[in-house]
Every structure is written in C-alpha cells, then in structure tokens.
Amino acid sequence: MENLGSLINAVILIPLFGVLFASLSREGGRERVSNVLCVGIFTVLSNLVVLWRAALLIDLDKDGWQVVEKFTWIKNPKIELVFGIDIFSLMLIAAVHLAVLLGMVGIRHNTYRQKALIVCALLFLSMISGYFLASDFFSFYIFFEAMLLPLFMLIGIFGDIKKQQILYRFFLYNLLGAVFLFVALIVLYNYQNVSIREVSRIVLSGHGEALVWGSIFIAFLSRIPVWPFHYWISSVNVNISNPLVFIIANIIPLSGVYGLIRFFPVNAPEVLDPYLLILEVVSIITMLMIALIGFTKKDIQYKIFSYMTVYYILYLLGALLPTDALLMNIGFSLFSYLIIVAALEVLVAHLDNECQSKEIGECGVLCAVPRTSLMFSFLILAAIGMPLSSVFLNNMVIFSGLLKFNIKMAVCILLAVMLASVSLLQQLFYLKYPPETDEPLPPVPEECRAADISLRVFAVMLLTAALLVLSFINPLWFIG
Fold this sequence. Notes:
Blueprint (H helix, E strand, L loop, with lengths): L1 H23 L10 H23 L9 E8 L4 E7 L1 H20 L7 H20 L3 H10 L1 H11 L5 H24 L18 H16 L8 H8 L5 H7 L2 H12 L9 H24 L3 H20 L7 H31 L12 H14 L6 H16 L1 H26 L22 H16 L10
C-alpha cells in the first residue's frame, strides 16, 4: 500500500503544480484555445490518471481507510495532517474532477480573465481533494475552510452579483459554519489526531455532546441548501453565467453532505433524536418548496438549481438513516449526478450565449442545433432517472431504504423529486418545440440561428454519455 500513499499525496499536489504552470502561461485570443486552458485540462486529466491508478490498488472488500499518510506540522502542540482514502472518497474526487473538466471544455472561447479562472479552479480542486482525503479532524477543518478562498475569488470576479446583501450573506453563512466547526474542534482538542470516523465514539458530558454535535451540524448544514441557508446558495447561483464557476459553486453543498456522512454515526446519540426529527421536517419542506418554485420559474438556471437542491437533500436524508448499507449507493448515484449536472450546465451556457449574442428567443432553439439537441435530451432523461446512468438504480435503492424507515417522509421526498424532474422535462419541451401556429413560419436566416456545439465538444459529450451508460450499476466496474 506504499504506492497508494504516494498517490494520495499526488492527488493534492498535482493541481497545485497546475496552478504554478497556469500562472506562468499566456492567455490566448478567441480564435484558439489558450495555453492556460490547455494547462488546466492537462492537469485535470493527469490527476484522473492518478485516481485511476489508485482505484486499481484499492481493496474493494475492505472497509474504512485503505492507507493513512501522516505529516507532522507542529510538534508542540502536536498537530499532524493525516490523509486516507477509501472507495467513497475516491469516487467523489473522480466525479468532481470530471465535472471541472467539463466546465473547462465549456469555457474554451471565454477569454474574460481566463488565467484567474483556471488558477482558482485548480486551487479549488486541490483543496476539495484534500478535504475528501482528510482522515482526522484537524486536517478536515483546514481543507473545509481552505476551499472557500478560491470559491470567494471566483464568485467575486465572475459572479455577476449586483446586490451587496447577497455577498454579505454568502460570506456570513460560510463564516458561521467555520466558527461552529472550530468550536467543535476546540472541544475535541484533548483527543489529538482523532479520526473523523471516531468522533461519535468519544465520551462527552451531556452538555459537551450537545455542543459538539450541534456545532458540527450547523457547520455542515450552512453549506447545504436547507432552510434558512438555501437563500445564499440560490442567490449566488442564479447570477452565475460562467459554466465552470457555476459547477464549482454547486460542488460546495457536496462538501456539507460529505461532512455529515463522515461524522454521523449509525447509532446517533440520544441527545440528537429531537433535533434530527426537526432537521428531517425542515429538509423535506425545503425540498418541496424549492421544487415547486423551480417548476414555476422559466429560468433554466433556477430549474437546474432546484434539481440539484432536491437531490442533495435526498442524499443527505439517505445518509442520516440508521444504516451504512446505503452509503455506496449514495456514492454511486452522486458520481453520475455530478457529471450529468456539469455537462448539462455546459450546454445551457452555450444556448444562453447563442440566444443573447444573436438576440433570438429560447423557445424551439434546439430545432436548429441537432448535436446540442441530442446531448441535451440525453442528459435531461438521465437526470430525471431514466435507466441511462447509475442514478436510476441507486436512487431506487435509496428510496427503498427511506420507505423502509419512514414511509411518510419517503412519499414527500418522492413528490419533490417528481416535481424537479417534471420541471426539467418542461424546459426540454420548451427548448425543443416552437409554438404551433396555423400559418407556416418563414425560414429563419442562417445568421439568426443558434450555432451548434463544435465537433470537439460533441465528441466530449459523447464520451460523457458513454461513461454514464457504462456506470449504470457500478462506476467502479473497471476494477472488478
């Protein structure tokens, strides 16, 4: 397992080397792909190769961390950075890399401050990889906060946010999560280098248990679009037109879901029982509210946000069930879910850019772009749960688990998922079919038609579709 340990380090370090080379690269014009973008794509592909090699070394039958790497940072007080890897974290890191790669494909002709965009994206990739690999509380906290730096820079530069109140809430809620997690860290400081899997086994007093778990829950929920924290996420996302920034901003809720999955024990402490019930009720109400708003909105960006919110909360509630049996199903479903949303956002950004630049309406815009129409239709069908990816089968398993433990909760969740799915289908038909009229429509001049995605982007989308189909049951099929 020594090779696996070195690969863990490489996953974090390779994007940092990419940041260095991207900073020294030149930005190109609109007619060609810039050097800095090539550096970004090459860096992500290199890390995917490292992740593939790590996957081949992982023992699928072994639970827990496969290998642990420790680095002493400060000797007095003794503070170490501890990294480990398991199947669940590996899948999420791979899915985030693929989502960022698709986002980079979507910005190939976007020349506005492209160097800053790629540098921040690679820095974020390194920090969130460290977050998924951190196996002790202190390392977990460092990367939990470190990933916010590139995110703040991306939102500030590319967010297109006009109201300062939105940015204030964005910073406030994230600062709130940082403070509460730091409180939990201070309380647990006496248990040095405690593994995040062992937090639930630490014996605390009644008040100490309430303080630690309450702080942990507030810290992670501040990044998940659950009321009242949903507002800052929705306000930021609907103002982002850059596909790569949109993808990165929507990976942040994953960090909250992942944190609760890692910390939450199978047998929750008794002090949490009344609060868990409140959390479940609030989460379901948020799902239904956001799904209903997404159904009534005409903005495709808000519909995608609505879909993502519903599914993030679905995975959160599945992870809170008193069983670990659904953990791998949540991981398999998240793998395809992130890729689908990233590819869908790239196509939506392309259509929005064409409609704005050529001053044409969105209704029926897919009629003139067959390649975009084909991939858009495939991704929408995969997103709503058609049997085209691992979302289909694994979501069925998650729903069956929810039905087993609480049938009323499962019915409400299913209703929210159906609303979010119908909302996406509604947008597909709106973009695909123009309104019917009794009189034949005059031919549209070529210069007024939306341009189709290029053959290169189409090839990338076809490879993405093939990956989704091949991961229908298990995204790790290539290692047995």
